[in-house]
Write a structure and sequence with these properties.
Layout lengths: L1 E5 L1 H15 L4 E7 L3 E7 L5 E7 L6 E3 L11 E2 L29 H5 L7 E2 L1 E7 H7 L6 E9 L20 H6 L8 E9 L7 E9 L1 E2 L7 H7 L5 E5 L1 H8 L7 E7 L4 E7 L6 H5 L5 H5 L9 E5 L5 E3 L3 H15 L14 E7 H15 L7 E5 L6 E7 L2 E7 L12
Antiparallel strand pairs: 1-5, 1-9, 2-3, 2-8, 3-4, 4-21, 6-7, 8-12, 9-10, 10-11, 13-17, 13-19, 14-15, 14-18, 15-16, 19-20, 20-21
Length: 413
Amino acid sequence: MDCIISGNSNVKRFSYAISCLCRIGKDLYIDFNELDGLYLKTLNDAKSAYTCCHFQPSFFERCCSPPTGALTKGATSTSRSRGRDRMPTGPNSSRKRRNIGGDKATAADVEDGDIPSQQTYSLTCRVPLRTLTSALRPRKNVRSLRIRSHGNSEQHSVADGNDSEEEPLSATTENDGSREGKLMQLSFEYILESQQHANSMMRVAHRVGVAECDSIMAVVSSTIREQHNSYSEIVSSPKLFTKILDPLRKTAEIVFTVNDEKKQITVASFHDSDIIATARTGNNSDTNLLLLPSSMLLKTQTSMGCDEFECYTWRNSEHFDNSRLQSNSAEGSTNREEPPSNVHEEVNLVFGIREIKTLVQFCTSVNMQDHDMKIVMSFQYGGKPIVFESSGKGFTIQLIMATLDHKLLRPNM
C-alpha cells in the first residue's frame, strides 16, 4: 500500500476519522485495494456497533501498490472491467483470493476469448487503535501524509519469486535479522512546513506493526441494500443532532421514538427499569420491586417536530409488509419476526448514545473544514439495526448499531 494525502485539510479529516474510530472500538481493521480505496473498520466491545470509514481513491493524491510494484501475500488478481460489490457481504469475510504466483495466460486461453485479468494489490490487516491515535493526531502546517506498507521477503514474496527491493526497516533489522523486523509494518510519514523558513520542510515518520487478518463486515449491510425501500429515513445536519443529544449526555442509552401520526420525534434517557420485569427474571414474581427504582431515576426527554429535519421519509405499511414477506420467505417459516402492533404509527429504538455522539462529533469537526455533511438515519423498528451514514468529498462513514427488541420494552414508553 502506498497512499499520499495532500493538503492540511484532508490530513485533518483522516486524523478525525482515526479519532472517531478509537472512541468506538479497540482494534482498527484496514482493508485496502487499489480500485476501491481504503476502508477503516472497527467494532465496539459488545459487538453491537460497527463503523466503517471509506476513503475513495479520489481522496488521495496517490493510491497504488508499494513502490516496488510487487504483489505481496495479501495481493489479489482482479479485473478492472468487471463489476463487483464495494464491500464484502458477510461477517469475518474477505475478498476471494487465489494464488497468482504461477498463473499465466496461455495461447489457448486467448484463442478462446479469455482475457487475462490484471493483477491488483490489496491488503487486509489489524492494528490497535490506541497505538495510532497518538501518532495520527491533528497537526498544524501539514503539507502531506504518506501511508506505506512494509514487509520482509519471508512473509511477503514477490509474485515471480524474486526478493522485494523495499528499503530496510531499520539498521537493526538489516544487521542482526531479528524476528521482530520480519513483521509487516505500516509507516505514516508527515511532511511539515517550517514556520521559521518558508521553503524549509521537516519529515516526521511513525511505524507500527500490524497483523494479518480477515476483513470484517456487518451481515446486515447486504440486507439494508436489498430492502432499502422498507427503511424510514431522517436527514439532518450534525448541529441539529447535537442539539437533541446534548441534554442526554450523562446517560448511557437512549430511546429514540418516532411518531408518524403526530409528526413528532422524541429522544429520552433509557434505564434498565424500562425493560419488562418478566424478560429479566423469567417469571412474574417481584415485579413491583423491580419497577420501584424507576421513580427515583432522573428521566430526561427532548422532542421536536419532524419538520425541523431537512428530510423525513416514513415508509408506509405497503413497503414494510412487502419487505417482511420477502425476508420471511428467504429465512423460512420457523424464523419469522413479528413487528410491533403499532409499527405503522410509531417506533421505539433503544441504542447506546456513545457511538452516535462520536459520529456527530466527527461530522461537526469535518464541517468546520467547509464541508456540508449531512447525517442520514435509516431505521425500521426495535430489534432491527439502525444505520447512520454521512459522506464528504472523497469519503463516506457508516455506523450500524443494534437496537433493543421491542418485545422487551414496557408499554407506554
